[in-house]
Amino acid sequence: MSQRISGNRRGEWLELTPGKLPVPEGGGRYEAALLWLERVLGVPAKLLGRLEHDGGIKLAGDRLRLQLFPPKTSQYEPTDIGVYEPTVRGERSVEILYEDDFCLVVHKPAGLKVHPDGGSHVPTLANMVSAIYSSRGESVAPQHIHRLDENTSGPVLYAKNVFAQLKLDAAMAQKDIGRVYVALVQGVVNPSLHVIDEPIGKDRHHNSRRVVSRTGQRAVTHVELIEAYQNASLVRLTLETGRTHQIRVHLSHKGHPLIGDTLYGGSTKLYPYQMLHGESLSFQHPLSGELLHISDPWPEAWNDVQKRLSMKQI
Question: Can you tell me which residues form the catalytic site (predicted)?
Fold first, then answer.
């Protein structure tokens, strides 16, 4: 999408004004609109075909309308955000960091799964998000674009309609969605450590673990030392790939397990679970193409740990 696109929602419809479009040979204004939708707006072919079949494309004068907002019912039972108690005191609950008709970004507290896995009836972020729209009386069923580990806090991106979902899924696959994390790790990280490029695979001896393995998938983590303490470090991490437990595996492999991450050799002396937080998320808006940068403040519960580390109370 080479030009900035804007549109207005009219109920179930998105109204666009693409301007005068060149009519293809042997076609008319409708065919010109289809080419514009495909080549300029970037509507995936599968969705474009579905809209055509269902009468979801309309031309009226210089206005082009797409039926992108049909009512949807979430598969997840709404759970009132107010009844959820975070696992660790000081961690704030679910909150909206960004929202428009296409995208939703919410803060996921530590101790909350992104979606149900069939093994527990404990509410998940998906249930909380469903409750947001249930309480508003809106028929919206957002779909998550990426995940965070249960005990990792940070922003989670959702698509609010199928157009946004297809565009954001493609961006995720092409590594065009930027994710930056901060972590408190054990030991003093060498300032010269900037990149960890080590393949990650499953641990044959432990179903829940991942390991650095020559036969694993390529995994790249960029590392920036923010502050060094006597026996710990605060680091900023940027993912180039998105393997399961990537940051936790890579830092542990380098001798710096995350504080609190018992699965990968971390100690819970200072914190009960891994100190890993998604600091920011950046992505191109699926309609306008605008680059959005969404920040998520560090957990307040980290303040005491950082203070103790600074005062060498470890």
Answer: 149
Q: Are 151 and 273 spatial neighbours (Cβ–Cβ below 8 Å)? A: yes
**pLDDT tens, position by position, 54-92:** 999 999 888 999 999 999 999 999 987 555 554 444 566
pLDDT at 201 over 90: yes
Residue pointed to by tokens 């560090």: 298
DSSP string, 175-215: T-SEEEEEEEEES---TT--EEE--EEE-TT-TT-EEE-TT
Helix (H) or strand (E) holding 244, with range, is none
Residue 313 binned pLDDT confidence (cut-offs 50, 70, 90) = low
CA–CA separation, 11 vs 206, rounded Å? 50
The neighbour count for residue 221, using CB atoms within 10 Å, is 24
Query: Reduced to 3 states, what is the DSSP secondary structure of residue 38?
Result: helix
Domains of the chain in sequence order: 7-66 (no CATH), 81-310 (3.30.2350.10)
Catalytic member of 54, 62, 101, 149: 149
Phi-psi region of 19 (alpha: psi -120 to 50; beta: other; left: phi over 0): left
Q: H or E segment at 7?
A: strand 7-10
From residue 274, how far is each of 7, 160, 181, 226 by CA, in Å?
Answer: 42, 30, 12, 18
Is the distance from CB of 13 to CB of 59 less than 8 angstroms? no
Q: pTM for this structure?
A: 0.91
Q: What values do phi and psi take at 293, rounded to 5?
A: -125, 110
DSSP 48-114: HHHHHHTT-EEEETTEEEE--------SSPP--GGG---SSTT----EEEEE-SSEEEEEEPTT--S
- The whole-angstrom separation of Cα 128 and Cα 62 is 41
User: Quick one: tokens of 40?
Assistant: 């300029």
* Rounded CA separation 53/47 (Å): 10
DSSP state of 285: -
Per the annotation, the verdict on 149 as an active-site residue is yes
